[in-house]
Amino acid sequence: MTSSADIGDHMALGVGAIIGESFSIFLKHLIPVALMALVPSLLSLLASGALIGVDVTLGAAEPEFNASFGFGAWAMATVLQMSFYSLTTALLVQLAYDAKLGRTIQLGRYVAPAIRAAVPITVLSLIAGVLMGVASIALIIPGLWVYAVFSMIAPAVVIERVGFGGLGRSANLTKDYRWPILGALILIGIVVVIFNFIAGFAAELTADSGQFVAALAYLIPTTLGAGLSGVCIALIYARLREIKEGVSVDEIALVFD
């Protein structure tokens, strides 16, 4: 079916509507969104801090690769950070659909599906990250395009339980819509960068107050950025399922009942 809102032979993704609804859900449910992102972020900070130091984790100090701080510790900390970020995304995907449908936010109900999805999301995100890096060696645009191709890994794994088939599922879902998806993610990414800049500035400003205060000053803005990003990804996934497969949001949310 085509209309004036179509892109060629394809229905429009509706980037403006997705961005607007992402902010609406984010602001309306700010506290649960922040909690969903804060807990994994705090655990990530503690785990990474134990391996490479809190200052390095916060970006307040540069890693020094010596006997006490090897590349292995840094790599392990990076994987742990990605694992907890994957857990955050898996939690927020579920919250976003309940919020979109006007259902009660039930934080405890999201934990088990998110934990089940965390490992495959982490592994697949690492693979996607390597592919992005390879694509970016020549130019930045191919790297961003690859990012759009695999941007739906998390919701596909959480919602459809495709496990390590998430790469292929994301590639299929995003086909024909990768540029508008990238546009939406860049717009949200600009806001996330602002949050992260505030986080770094806040951590530096509170450095003399102790690591705990600096960590909180860093975590609060970064968790807000992660929360907004997670909600946006969930809404893009829902829109793609609606366009390509005729699946409504309430049908997507049924998997959690």
From TrEMBL:
Instruction: Determine if Membrane is one of this entry's keywords.
Output: yes
Keyword list, A-Z: Membrane, Transmembrane, Transmembrane helix
> Which range is the signal sequence, renumbered to this chain?
none
Indicate the transmembrane segments per the record.
30-54, 74-97, 118-141, 147-167, 179-203, 215-238
Q: Determine the domain of life of the protein's source.
A: Bacteria
Name of the protein: Glycerophosphoryl diester phosphodiesterase membrane domain-containing protein
Question: Which organism does this record belong to?
Answer: Pseudovibrio japonicus
